[in-house]
Design a protein that fits this description.
The protein has helices spanning 16-27, 43-52, 65-71, 77-82, 102-112, 129-139, 153-163, 221-228, 238-253, 260-270; strands at residues 2-7, 31-36, 57-60, 74-75, 87-90, 96-99, 121-125, 145-149, 169-172, 183-186, 209-212, 233-236. By secondary structure, the chain is of the alpha/beta class. Helix 1 (16-27) packs across helix 9, helix 5 (102-112) packs across helix 6 and helix 5 (102-112) packs across helix 9 (238-253). It is globular. Bound molecules: 2'-monophosphoadenosine-5'-diphosphate. 2'-monophosphoadenosine-5'-diphosphate binds next to helix 6.
Length: 273
């Protein structure tokens, strides 16, 4: 049977096996999908061993995405732009192709929630790996403006400079931000510590859409905060997780699984509904 897995550390909590097993059942593909948690300095060897032993493809998650970028034979344009690889496919020619489906997953999830990206003013919080992966796919949707803001301003400036050939992206400090924005995307890891990015509450209004790439069984700190300040449309990153997986599955198998039912089952599994 064709074998796939996700590399991460820690990875025991990963929902990828659950999601891909449902995709496989739905599309009647015969495959198995497991977990691998190599020591941080043993990822390269573990990856090689997996493919030497007949593995067909894998996902890569924290903290290995940047390392995976350096280990594959060939990069998709979107992986090159993202500077990170979250999906690897062994091609029929024996080439390890590195791809990045995170940004596409974000955009697909925003669209599935009915968020309009064309001509919109988007504010992206954070300038780490998650922000980098999101920038090109967001700019491809032709927003009128995309502002990147980050606690460490130099990193936002660096990202804006790197992506300004693709669209109207600028860097501003949290203090400089002037609304109204149509969409705020939180790509910071602040919610992991239950912390909040230092965003002025005045930027939140009733018609704004709020997206947090993080997710949990209950609202993230950022989503709770935005709701308190009047945001009516809030979304967490669970849909992005399922959409990036669907995109990876499509890369591997050439068939696109439906995501709605799988997202519903995942929510049930997490106790969200
Ligand atoms: P990831 O790969 O998930 O993006 P990362 O590359 O470590 O992770 O980036 C984390 C991002 O969250 C950074 O933009 C970080 O800001 P700094 O560059 O200033 O470190 C941001 N971040 C983390 N904790 C934060 C907090 N409490 N408030 C605001 N931003 C925070």
């Amino acid at each position: 049977m064709d074998r796939y897995l996700v590399f991460g550390h820690p990875v025991r909590h990963s929902k990828s096996p659950f999601i891909h097993t449902l995709f496989a059942r739905q599309t009647q593909q015969e495959l198995e999908y497991g977990l691998a948690e190599p020591a941080v300095d043993e990822f390269a060897q573990a990856l090689r061993t997996f493919f030497d032993q007949g593995g067909k493809g894998c996902n890569v998650t924290v903290p290995f995405k940047e390392q995976a970028f350096t280990l594959v034979d060939c990069l998709s344009p979107r992986a090159k732009r993202a500077g990170a690889v979250n999906t690897i496919k062994l091609t029929d020619d024996g080439v390890l192709l590195g791809d990045n489906t995170d940004g596409a997953g974000l955009v697909a999830d925003l669209k599935s929630h009915g968020v309009t990206l064309a001509d919109s003013r988007i504010l992206l919080l954070g300038a780490g790996g998650a922000a980098r992966g999101a920038l090109a796919p967001l700019l491809a949707e032709l927003p009128s403006e995309l502002v990147v803001t980050n606690r460490t301003h130099a990193k936002a400036q660096q990202l804006a400079a790197e992506f300004c050939d693709l669209g109207p992206v600028t860097a501003q400090t949290y203090e400089q931000l002037a609304g109204p924005f149509d969409l705020v995307i939180n790509s910071t890891s602040a919610s992991l510590q239950g912390a909040l990015p230092p965003l002025a509450p005045a930027l939140i209004h009733t018609d704004i859409a709020i997206y947090d790439m993080m997710y949990g069984a209950s609202d993230t700190a950022f989503i709770s905060w935005a709701k308190q300040h009047g945001a009516r449309q809030t979304m967490d990153g669970l849909g992005m997780l399922v959409e990036q997986a669907a995109e990876a599955f499509t890369v591997w198998r050439g068939i696109r699984p439906g995501t709605k039912q799988v997202l519903r089952e995942l929510k049930r599994n997490l106790g969200v509904i």
